[in-house]
Amino acid sequence: MAGKPRRSGVDLMYDVVIKGGKIVGSPFGTIEGDIGIAGECIAAIGSGLKGKHVVDASGKLVLPGAIDAHVHMELPVSGTRSSDDFASGTKAAACGGVTTVIDFTVGDRDSTLPEDIESRLDEAEKSYIDYTFHAEIIGWHRSRSWEILKAMQMGVTSFKFFTAYSSSGRRTDRGALFDAFETIGDLGALAIVHAEDEEIIDHIVSSLDPSEIGDMSTLAKARPPLCEALAVGDVIYLAERANTKVHIVHLSSALGLEAFKRARSFYSNATAETCPQYLLLTKEVYEGMEGHLYSASPALRTSMDAQALWEGISSGDISLIATDHCPFTREQKSWKNNFLDLPYGLPGVETSLPLFFSEGVLKRGISLEVMVKLFAENPARIYGLFPRKGALQIGSDADITILDPNQEWTISSNNLHMNTDFSPYEGMTIKGKVCTTLSRGEVIYDNGLFKAREGRGKFLGRSI
User: Is 393 exposed, middle or buried, given 0-12, 13-18 or 19+ CB atoms closer than 10 A?
Assistant: First the structure.
């Protein structure tokens, strides 16, 4: 990793020094001190450090840059595309303290995984921060085994499957999923799965009358917690038989969490994430005049489900927080009296970290150290980026977020950078705001000013 500290007289002179902050996630625990940066990397942690450029972090929290391991930039869906491209989406991410994103290739039955990766690399060249991909597998066949090996040689080591969405061709049935898991397990890669039971969803939807299809609140009925729980159990039991690592994305319900815990008692090599929307929003929003703007899959649940997920975080059963960031404008989600025809997805990459600090740390007593694990260390470890990312260690990339724990602000799409005119947290006042973000030692966001150049982000090739 580049960069050694320079000497100025008898003192070491660093390129950048972050001075006087409360450092969370260092090898020394949580300490008050300085971080010295040389080139793109952390070179020292201590006190009294000197630098050519000094960032005053007095009274602030100094955190490893957050990793959002589940985002969808310019994703084609329901006849449109998610409204953030890699430029606007990663700019918003940086303003929210996120320094690495993991997006997805756009799979197709008729393309190879290496072709999908190359196509996505072209789109991601506009990124302001570092990025990597999960490879989406649509249509399993034996030649995919060679493609997985080639994808791994290209630096992509996690592979996405769906147990739902037959109508769009994305579903992988259990037999094919088991075959795929065996290949992934043999190669030491990671399977990640959107787990909802297609048969339950289809059964419910087929029984709906037209008035229910024209009612946004039916979304929660059509994709109930039962469908999540059944699929979560199936997926982990298949992974155990195939001896492959598996990660469950966007866990949303108490029943799904219980299924995860039961299955993991038989097979420990399984992890799960949840998202802010499942911790903070409930299905009652579907009943409002703008309920259609909250369309998401999985659907939003009850307050009891949210409480169970908070408890899953505290118990350590949920390993990381991701956003499933997939924004659309109000026009893209205009209501046409059919909840089935809406694009599903919510914006969140810019608000996730401050929301969790306010609602999780300040209101629910979750420790700063646990927050750092959820947002930085654990995603870095699960996805093969640690300790380059997700850590405040000497030699790690100087991806650093500085958060003001005392600043109160009100969330509005008007004061955010995501390319949408809607926030699901509109009007919510929270405490804690990202004030400065560094990516590989460069201050790219500072007190409302965005300073980075488009395209500076790097692709992060991973190995197992």
Answer: middle
